[in-house]
Amino acid sequence: MTQLNAARRVASPARPASLAARSPHTLDGLLLAVAVAGISLSGPLVATVAAPALAVAFWRNALAVVSLLPAVLLRAPLRRELAGLHRRTLLLSLAAGAALAAHFGLWLPSLGLTSVASSVALVTTTPVWTTVLLRLLGRRPPALVWWGTLLSFAGVLLLTGVDLAVSPRALAGDALALGGGLAGAVYVLIGAEVRRTTSTTGYTFLCYASAALLLLPAALLGGAALGGYAGGTWLKLLLLTLVSQLLGHSLLNRVVRGLGPSVTSTAILLETPGAALIAAVWLGQLPPAAAYPALLVILAGLALVIRAERTPTPPPPSPAVE
């Protein structure tokens, strides 16, 4: 009996350990769903904001920095973390902010130059660029990641359609949107690297501050008015900051550490059908008939990417002993 009880004590930790290994991914999955819902509100909300595109991009980052400032000032561990950051980590955080600024600064103006369908389809190439950049950086994503990424992107094309107009103005808008998608991939990849050693709050504070500082001169040089808005516009900017920036982007930065850049960037594709469904409920704009099958296609592609990322890579064969 004593030996049996001892065996049970030795064997019993296996199940809790397995559950503990899965629970972080379950929590990350839930937080990712909240993040996608947050960024999905961005498009419909921006469409109702009576402010220039670059001004909206600046204020959503600047207001996020202001909201994070009390935590930085009042929390001693966070102050110590920021003060003791390695130079490489600091530079990468600032670079992520530059990539985020480029993402907003390229994509939002593209909406005024090309069709919304083309802009959305091209800016959502982020997961494709993420997979390509991972390959260029020496990591070999599994074939299932490639197929899942392409399947999810096909779902976006199913919803938005292919509407590439051949005119200098439209081509310029298409190029801006494509650049915004590439910048988004760089932002996700740098975030995944920095978040390995840095807290979410510390990283997002530096990232958003860097983005705001770069977007400010861009908005001023572009002639975008940064003030003089009606009270309703300021309320919408605050809502955009709270929901799309702090809940959306900050939670993406929170989960990218555990889920990885491939899963996180592919999940961002859900923003397109999510925005369509939110616009239907909030603005009364009925989603196109393709919204629902497109959502299923994107989810199927995301499932493939998650499965590929969760499949353990077999160890290399041991050299033969002669």
TrEMBL record:
UniProt keyword list: Membrane, Transmembrane, Transmembrane helix
Domain EamA: 31-160, 172-306
Transmembrane segments: 30-51, 57-78, 90-110, 116-137, 144-165, 171-190, 202-227, 233-252, 264-283, 289-306
InterPro entries named among the record's database cross-references: EamA_dom, EmrE-like
Key word DNA-binding present: no
Keyword Transmembrane: yes
Any single GO CC term annotated in Swiss-Prot or TrEMBL for this entry: membrane
Signal peptide region: none
Domain of life, source organism: Bacteria
Family membership noted in the UniProt record: Belongs to the EamA transporter family.
Protein name stated in the entry: EamA family transporter
